[in-house]
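User: Hi! I'm working on a homework problem where we have to compare a predicted structure to a textbook description. Could you give me the structure for the chain below?
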Amino acid sequence: MKKIAVLMGGTSSEREVSLESGRNISEALASLGRYEVAPVVLDADSLAGMPAGTDAAYIALHGGWGENGGVQAALDALGIPYTGPGAKACATAMDKIATKRILDEAGIATPPWRAVTAAEAAAKDGPMTPGDYPAVVKIPRDGSSVGVFLVHSDGEYRDAVAKCVAMDGREALVEAYVPGREATVGVIGGECLPPIEIVAKGGWYGYDEKYRSGETRYPFIEDGELCGRLCAAAKAVWNALGCRGVSRIDFRVAPDGTCHVLELNASPGFTSHSLVPKAGMKAGDTFAGVCERILKLAECG
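Assistant: Happy to help. Predicted structure tokens:
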């Protein structure tokens, strides 16, 4: 694999995040001196702009066609290896409701949840999840904390459901809020990277806290027993969803120690705030080395 197309941009709400990831990955791979790197900015759900003779595609797209199995299926049809999970695993992981069902069937801990429409939310008070308020309302098929709301009242709940339904076109995902700690585990080739705790001001890690705030902290978890449980849970999710390449699994760790899976990110970011490269470097690699490790796992089909 010498000629590498780094796919970035796209049409989703995460376009700007993807552009930053793509630029960073392109520069990192080029710095190794072993690859002919072609940054490819997509402005449509199409591979029309990809250079001829591409040996492999590094997917730096986030959300939408870049993470729901669309670009993966298009690359499969062309016979071009690509980074990250295959089309089926991406489609499942991008759909938080489909993921929840798989987690429940596999007996993997995840916050209690329910899918609701705006009409159902308007017809009944409360978030309809164990624990009531606070509750979390999410757009089921998006990422980067886009369309995620922490609600504390019936009014906030109905408003959040309406916004998520408008974005999704069908329904909203309502989750019980799990108090405790937020954590994330990157997985490359089935091997866990060092787990990271996410410490956001006020205890809520939304879009602003992820990309705009300079106050969010990301310490590595020093508790070896907790790291072991997080890694075991991350691998269980990875296997249940049929992943390969690279993914990142997000958790809430309850006061009783239960590691509740929030979601699996099939195309984790590589921005200045991103946690997979941070964890890879903690494990002894360089930023460029993490990118190359992921590239070498590129597969087709």
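For your comparison, note the following. The longest helix spans residues 15-31. The longest strand covers residues 181-188. Good luck with the assignment!
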